[in-house]
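User: Hello, can you help with two protein structures?

Assistant: Certainly.
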Amino acid sequence: MTRFAKAHACGNDFLIVEGECDPELAVRLCARNTGVGADGVEFLQWTGEREGRIRLANADGSIAEISGNGTRCVAAWMAHQKQMRAGETVRLETDAGVRGCELVCVNGHRFEFAAGMGVPKIRSKQVRLSDGTQVDGVEVSMGNPHFVIFVDDDSFDAYQRTWQELGREICFHTDFPEQTNVEFVRVIDTNKIEIRIFERGVGPTTSSGTGTCATAAATISRRGGSPRLLVRAPGGEQQVEWEGGNSEMTLTGPAELIATGEAW
């Protein structure tokens, strides 16, 4: 039997399994109809009282460097286990580096964290689609890869494609041999943006922590967005703070524990 906890951050759901990373197990557990169901499995190995090493296997078994939402979900599980209070911090080592998550508040099984997300790396990029269409975007690394596309319409469709179709084509584009996460961003005003996400290894998702950060970084650097930016996704809102340059980005958002259990 495999013991697990399940949590979500703005609808982006994860299983937390203590032990070494097992991609085959992740595929089986993440199956929506024949398994427990999740976007990915965070495999946690405790390394201290409030410290751990995590590795993320996506629903398709691929390994991701980091998930901002998944990291917060693990932090919530650890905070629950250790009965942490506001102001205390969890440190988690990911494949993208160490991330500190400070507990902001607790309400039952709902936790809010302010997490350090590293320094984004940003550059403009064009992608040529199979029909010759040139797509202008912003390539952002948050320790994992993102391609951000600005849109004007609240449908988020662009280049005569639905955002889901365009996201899939770019995710698997030859320019990205290890695939990429794709985000579509609509600027509401200088303090707020709205996004849609096509996540590598998963597909369309309700939220993404690193996707939230990537779109905020692109908006602040390319569109003059506020250094304190509210990012709205279908699953909810998260707050990003970034002064630009080599300063670290901070992401504040919720994580809620849903259940614990055992799977065959």
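That covers the first. Now for the second protein you mentioned:
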Amino acid sequence: MATTTTRAQAGNARPRSHANTLLWAVQILLAAVFAVAAVPKLAGAHSATVMFSQIGAGQWLRYLVGAAELAGAIGLLIPRLAGLAAAGLAADMAGATVINIAILHSAAALMTVPLCAAFALIARSRRDQTMSLAAAIRR
């Protein structure tokens, strides 16, 4: 049985390919940003230790957030894990937004809210890979 591709089918494939390329570009950029953001937290930079002292939960939270951000950055670069990593980073940014507003009284929420939205959109766009991963784990 021969397969033929109509112009309509070929036209439909092209925008999806461009959208996927754009999505990967955004994921790579955000992965780099979050890998760089995780280093001061894990290395114990003065600014990070002061900020987490102000939060009041202890320095263990600094290590947890740094490790989660680094793992999320790496996960964004692995096709099968990208959706799950984006969902985790969306949760991280949601938590950061709450802490920035309620505890630190910081304008950093102006950055964490759009990042949360971006990660939520990536997670939604990569939901097929996440479902595939969940199915593989259940087997």
